[in-house]
């Protein structure tokens, strides 16, 4: 421990592991510590199943659900957009060499009355969808084609719309989309968490819609991917890669104190020893004095012996738009099975999550939980959401934000990019990382 490092990373959550790799690749000497004896921190996967029962202090016989080792239950399950930022990062950093992915079978949206509908995968499927009436289908098809054909550099594709000034609401009006269609577009395709986007310039939404359909076109059934054996494989994959580039990992290692002098970090004290460093990267739990609580997330992990009705036979995501259930925030539902190597054969793991709005958090999940009945086991948690109050510019302590209620990784990727810019002063450049890796691999081959 009595060494000097460029970077000490605290916590092995996915964000911290990604940044650990990026720092290692850039040639920095990295020490990565976690107070837990497993990877993933709050986003870990629980295996065997008995560990899930213990984690939630719940009585019950886990053995009746098959072999415990067949289960890998994510505490915060999320899916990867096939063409999204995290997928690019996995490819460019070559972490894919350690992982295998499955496509999520379907993406669905909830409509008032309790029914779920498949999100149309293209303009032809839109015309056949029972989600909309016949005239609305054609209006949505025209809207969809406009979004997919839009090219920021080609005025001919703009149809007179200045997307830097036109709002999302304006574009919906231009194509005559009704409220229900706006809900499923904004929340199940654009993946906005609430309706604040509606008055913002529409360019960002057009790009989000294009990302969704580019990801969908890669595989056809849904735009989402998921790693076999659970999300716990992701931080471990990044950790292995960081080690290749010289990173040092220590699990089950407490952080007693982050040592600062004149308001700037100089080291981390653990078990009587101090490791010197020039910066610290960590999750909020290590620096509660430097974060603020901005809300809460309620999650219910449920074990089922059946797939979700009307949502295919194995994996899916269902988004319940806020307006459809008179809320301010969306409700998210995901489902996985033995097909993704996370459950015993014949069983399913479903999650329902949302941002807390009342004094009865579990009750806010009712619309999602009703879709899952009957439920064999239910594990409910309420987690505080934290954001850093310190950018890290002066203190050189760079803090991630808590994981939100979404069941996809787009907001996680945004946080990583934001932290990278705060740390380096530069925007994250995928091509630069690719180049560095190619140089490194070439060097290894020549040795």
TrEMBL record:
Transmembrane region(s): none
- GO BP terms: protein transport; small GTPase-mediated signal transduction; vesicle-mediated transport
Q: Which GO terms describe its molecular function?
A: GTPase activator activity; Rab GDP-dissociation inhibitor activity
Enumerate the subcellular locations listed in this protein's record, separating them with semicolons.
Answer: Cytoplasm
> What role is this protein assigned?
Regulates the GDP/GTP exchange reaction of most RAB proteins by inhibiting the dissociation of GDP from them, and the subsequent binding of GTP.
Q: Which UniProt keywords apply?
A: Cytoplasm, GTPase activation
One Gene Ontology cellular component: cytoplasm
Q: Using the UniProt record, give the first listed, main subcellular location.
A: cytoplasm
- According to UniProt, the name of this protein is Rab GDP dissociation inhibitor
Q: Where is the signal peptide?
A: none
Top-level taxon in the UniProt lineage: Eukaryota
Claim: Hydrolase is one of the keywords in the record: no
Identify the Gene3D superfamilies for this entry: FAD/NAD(P)-binding domain, Guanine Nucleotide Dissociation Inhibitor, domain 1, Guanine Nucleotide Dissociation Inhibitor, domain 2
Q: Which family does it belong to?
A: Belongs to the Rab GDI family.
Q: Which organism is it from?
A: Owenia fusiformis (Polychaete worm)
């Amino acid at each position: 421990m009595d060494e000097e490092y460029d970077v000490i990373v605290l916590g092995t959550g996915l964000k911290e592991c990604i940044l650990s790799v990026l720092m290692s690749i850039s040639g920095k000497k990295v020490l990565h510590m976690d107070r837990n004896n497993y990877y993933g921190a709050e986003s870990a996967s629980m295996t065997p199943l008995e560990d899930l029962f213990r984690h939630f202090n719940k009585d019950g016989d886990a053995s009746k659900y098959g072999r415990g080792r067949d289960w890998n239950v994510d505490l915060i399950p999320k899916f990867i957009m096939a063409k999204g930022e995290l997928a690019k990062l996995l490819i460019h950093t070559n972490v894919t060499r350690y992982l295998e992915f499955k496509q999520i079978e379907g993406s669905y949206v909830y409509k008032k009355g309790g029914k779920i509908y498949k999100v149309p995968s293209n303009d032809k499927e839109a015309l056949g969808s029972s989600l909309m009436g016949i005239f609305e289908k054609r209006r949505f098809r025209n809207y969809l084609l406009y979004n997919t054909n839009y090219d920021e550099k080609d005025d001919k594709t703009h149809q007179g719309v200045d997307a830097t000034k036109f709002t999302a609401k304006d574009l919906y009006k231009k194509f005559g989309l009704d409220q229900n269609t706006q809900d499923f577009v904004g929340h199940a395709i654009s993946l906005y968490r609430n309706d604040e986007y509606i008055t913002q310039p529409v360019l960002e939404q057009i790009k989000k819609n294009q990302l969704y359909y580019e990801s969908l076109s890669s595989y056809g059934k849904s735009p989402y991917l998921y790693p076999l054996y659970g999300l716990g494989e992701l931080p471990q994959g990044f950790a292995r890669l960081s080690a290749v580039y010289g990173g040092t990992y220590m699990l089950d290692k407490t952080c007693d104190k982050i040592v600062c002098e004149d308001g700037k970090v100089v080291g981390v004290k653990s078990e009587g020893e101090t490791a010197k460093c020039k910066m610290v990267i960590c999750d909020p739990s290590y620096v509660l004095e430097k974060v603020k609580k901005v809300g809460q997330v309620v999650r219910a992990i449920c074990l089922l012996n059946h797939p979700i009705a009307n949502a295919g036979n194995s994996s899916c995501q269902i988004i319940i738009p806020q307006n459809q259930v008179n809320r301010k925030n969306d409700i998210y539902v995901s489902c996985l099975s033995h097909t993704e190597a996370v459950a015993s054969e014949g069983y399913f793991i479903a999650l329902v999550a949302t941002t807390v709005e009342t004094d009865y958090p579990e009750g806010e999940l009712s619309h999602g939980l009703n879709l899952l009945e009957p439920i064999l086991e239910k594990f409910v948690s309420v987690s505080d959401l934290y954001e850093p109050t310190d950018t890290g510019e002066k203190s050189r302590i760079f803090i991630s934000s808590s994981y939100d209620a979404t069941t996809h990784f787009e907001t996680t990727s945004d946080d990583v990019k934001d932290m990278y810019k705060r740390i380096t002063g530069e925007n994250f450049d995928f091509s630069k990382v690719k180049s560095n890796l190619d140089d490194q691999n070439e060097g290894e081959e020549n040795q």
